[in-house]
């Protein structure tokens, strides 16, 4: 299956999930994340979900990070440049929904990609080698390419991997992917 067909397939699979299923699976993913040996780090980058696209509710992971007093970094996308800025999430950070429904910081303290140690990566589909497909704009591939060499990329998915997907040289593979049932290591 090509990228477009896979995107369509997994958008449909997500669309078929009830709010209760999304909630239960998101909580299970957060609980699974506790099994990874990543909790000695300081800077964690996490996406905030686009609810209309039935993305994973990352609030459970946010609570874990806040409870462990970690520095939480959230992105803000610039659709004109195709780049993202990264902001430290603080108590007074004001979030506003972009025209695409993405909760983003209005302003704040910018953190560089090289400071990040763990990045929780959104995706639509991934394969058994850690290759991922997102919405197709390339934001995360450009962003991950700028991170430090030892930064960990952790995908979050409601579903198991495909056997193999076609990827391009610009696509950055994951180190792990967490599902409600299992952690896949690549």
Automatic annotation (TrEMBL):
InterPro entries: FTHF_cligase, FTHF_cligase-like_sf, NagB/RpiA_transferase-like
Cofactors (names): Mg(2+)
Keywords: ATP-binding, Ligase, Magnesium, Metal-binding, Nucleotide-binding
Enzyme Commission number(s) of this protein: 6.3.3.2
Family membership: Belongs to the 5-formyltetrahydrofolate cyclo-ligase family.
NCBIfam families associated with the record: MTHFS_bact (TIGR02727)
Record protein name field: 5-formyltetrahydrofolate cyclo-ligase
Source organism of the structure: Patiriisocius hiemis
Higher taxonomy: Bacteria, Pseudomonadati, Bacteroidota, Flavobacteriia, Flavobacteriales
């Amino acid at each position: 299956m090509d990228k477009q067909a896979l995107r369509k397939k997994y958008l449909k699979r997500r669309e078929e999930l009830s709010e209760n299923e999304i909630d239960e699976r998101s909580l299970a993913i957060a609980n699974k994340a506790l099994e990874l040996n990543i909790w000695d780090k300081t800077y964690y980058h996490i996406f905030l979900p686009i609810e209309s696209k039935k993305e994973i509710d990352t609030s459970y992971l946010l609570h874990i990070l806040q409870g462990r007093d970690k520095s939480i970094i959230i992105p803000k996308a610039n659709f004109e440049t195709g780049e993202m800025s990264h902001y430290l999430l603080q108590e007074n950070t004001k979030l506003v929904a972009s025209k695409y429904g993405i909760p983003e910081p209005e302003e704040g303290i910018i953190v560089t990609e090289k400071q990040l140690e763990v990045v929780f990566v959104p995706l639509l589909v991934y394969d058994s080698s850690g290759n991922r497909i997102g919405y197709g704009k390339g934001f995360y591939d450009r962003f991950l390419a700028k991170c430090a060499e030892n930064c960990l990329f952790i995908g979050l998915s409601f579903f198991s991997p495909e056997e193999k997907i076609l990827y391009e040289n610009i696509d950055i593979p994951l180190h792990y992917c967490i599902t409600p049932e299992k952690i896949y290591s690549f």
